[in-house]
Amino acid sequence: MKWVKGIFIGFFAFFIICMGFSTFNNKKEKSLIEGRALKQFPAFSGEKLIQTEYLNTLSDAFSDQITGRDKMIRAYNWLIVDVLQQKWAGSIAIGKNKQLYQEPELITDEAAYEKEVKECAELINKEAAKIKAAGSIFIYLNVPRKDVVETKNLPDYYPDSEKDYDHLISLLRSKLSDDVIFLDAKDIFEGKEHVYYSTDHHVNFTGQMLIYHKLMSIVKEQFPDIEVKELSDFRQKKRVIDGSFNRRIGYALTPEKEVLSVRPDFPYYAKRRSSKTAIFGGGKTYATAFMGGDYASTFVKTDKKEAPSIFISGSSYTNSLEALCTCSFSTMHSVDYRSNKSGKTLADYVQSEKPDYVVYLPNQSDKHFSLSTFKIHLGISDN
Amino acid sequence: MVFSSTIFLFAFLPILLILYFISPARCRNYILLIFSLIFYGWGGPSYLLLMIIVVTADYLFALFISMTEKKALRKLFLILTVAGNLGCLGYYKYTNFLIRNLNSIFGTDLTETRIILPIGISFFTFQAMSYVIDVYRKDVAVQKNPFYVMLYVSLFPQLVAGPIVRYKTVEDEILNRNIDIDEIAEGLERFMIGFGKKIIIANNTGALADLIFGMKSVDMPLAWVGAVTYTLQIYFDFSAYSDMAIGLGRIFGFHFEENFNFPYISKSVGDFWRRWHISLTTWFRDYIYIPLGGNRKGTGRMYFNMFVIWTLTGIWHGAEWNFILWGLYYFIFQSAEKLFLKKILEKIPRFFQHLYTLFVIVLGWVIFRCDDGLNHLIRYFKALFSFHINTGTSEILSAYFAKYGIYLFLGILFSIPIYRLIREALAEKLSGHKAAKIIFAGTGYLLVTGMFLISVLYLINSTYNPFIYFRF
Questions:
Q1: What chain A residue is nearest to B5 in terms of C-alpha separation?
Q2: Is A66 in contact with B437 (Cβ distance < 8 A)?
Q3: Which residue of A has its CA nearest to B395?
Q4: CB of B129 within 8 A of CB of B80?
Q5: Which of A36, A104, A157, A252 could cross-link with A81 by S-S, CB 3.0 to 4.6 Å?
Q6: pLDDT tens-digit profile of A156-208?
Q7: Going by DSSP bridges, is the β-strand pair A92-94/A88-89 parallel, antiparallel, or unpaired?
Q8: Please, how many CA atoms are within 13 Å of residue A374, restricted to the half-sphere of its CB?
Q9: Where do the structural domains in chain A lie, given as residue ranges?
């Protein structure tokens, strides 16, 4: 009997000792699965040893640097997804047909939410009036979460977020003034399938093209000659996109190939101010279907001198839309207020640049309608 | 530092184990003491000094008490000890509570102090105090080595969240303890079980409980799910800590008393409190209730003593009115049981006895959980008995059950002694069959190791890892 106990104790001791000593030798900088930088062990000093901050950093670094971290996250997700057949992995909901969704937004206080929606509308109206006074056309583009649009593949237990969204958006719509041209991407995507990436919360290139076309139909009312590109104007390359959700659940799911890289199949000229990074690979090579990052400010000048100009306040949701707009407009200036710390509001930018069109897209990846997010993307955040 | 952290599991513990087991027996207490101080100091080095001062003072007062036979002088030293410990506890834990209440009663504008509650202060002051009281009562011999007194109080497995160990429990083991492979294996198994209970069940039920209790408004079904979930969380959180403490103690040769005995299978409130946080209940019984006269001085005095005990139990848990209310809530039920309810309960089927007890316990935990103001508590109780169901609740619950259902199921399953019963039954059947016994033991260890490894996966993947009793 003793030898059985010996093996039991020996395994435990071996495991924790090996894990411990190997961890202290690790210097990993990034976790691909978690999409974040990992904390490094702080430099040792006897003096710091009595500081809580130093000890906390050491604990966090140890946790981040633990040997086999990524493999263990994958093993955890294998256990949850494949073995336990859970339709949840962390905050990710696993839908049908290899579709991943984020955690549902559960509305428990409807009255408070409705109040917040009304406040969002009031805020937009106020800013839209300023923008109209500056001579620009204000377009408020609402892109709902994937679970509102691609409902067919939702897991069975998933709440009816489409119903909640419809109720809130109709309330918001009813409160918007005439200064606002309102576009709901849910309407734009009506009858279309697979407009979001399978393993991510972003709208894919097909979806962005639909939004672009809707936007252009509005622009055409004043500028009928504006050039509008079609999906067929782009050569496309499909690849497996792991997407942020799938990275977070440790690549527990192998999705189908999707359009990731595109190349304009037409003469393309657009120059980005203060950056050498080409848009659409400068039209010469395949490039990612999005602009490749959420920049604080991107100013692009094109060869379409007679075309109108556009200003976009957005986020990663407008990345491909911004690139597509450079095929049609004379200038495209976009800001992402999550990174932009200029102190200028959207109305300030419009006052000074006088663009023909202003597109405002608040990020709704977490909550359908959040006043603080709406404020952020108008550049009037309290932060 | 917490047991369920990577730095404890893969750095602190292996280093300690190596040093402890390669050292000669005479050095082991000192190694344990140094590591216990590191363990405590990790959470806030500044409070290490506070603990050392408290223990040193208690060590000296115990010494003074033992050096004299004069009753008055012994009593004086005891009073100074108790006043010192309670003063320290009161200052750190209750000053701001007092200020808040003075401000609201008298309309004063006293500013709250910036005191940060030292981790585990309620545990280590009670433990240190009990040592001096035991010396005063001559229940234990005074310990002349200050390091051993320090080790007794600061012994890391039980330092910050109990069980509250009495000096007489570990008195002999501090001086002389036998460590063999059987003890280590049992301790390790207990530690792994506690680790699994904490990481897999307590953390996941805790995440759901926090979601529901954090909602601005809940309807009846959500409120009950939240209450039951918290009931599971607090049991698995606290009993897991005790399991890990008892297991680690066993590995290092100490035998701490049990702190839990499947409290949710109780048949009455009195029964529950004989099974829940046993070390605290017995501490209050032995050091307050009995000295106050217990039930020896008449019925009226007994109920007064019970009132004192329950008020103190409540306030020990936290400096908020809900904790005092929670204590008084149990005073009412225990009094009612003593007066008439026990007799009624004994006549009804056992199922209803359990149902009554669980009902009281679950509501009790709601009082305990709503520590962010009485308004929250009132709102939550209204929801529990509102018979109101929101339209989207079934969808919300179905989403929650899809995610947390398995942990609620495991929580309910392991709240009853099913594992112990199966194990005991199998062990009895296999007695006399040596090979079968080995296979049985091996399978048990394999299962526990598997659960431990799965818990490690959960730990690495999780960011939610609180310990409820750390703040007491």
A1: A63
A2: no
A3: A159
A4: no
A5: A252
A6: 888 888 999 999 999 999 999 999 999 999 999 999 989 999 998 899 999 99
A7: antiparallel
A8: 22
A9: 104-376
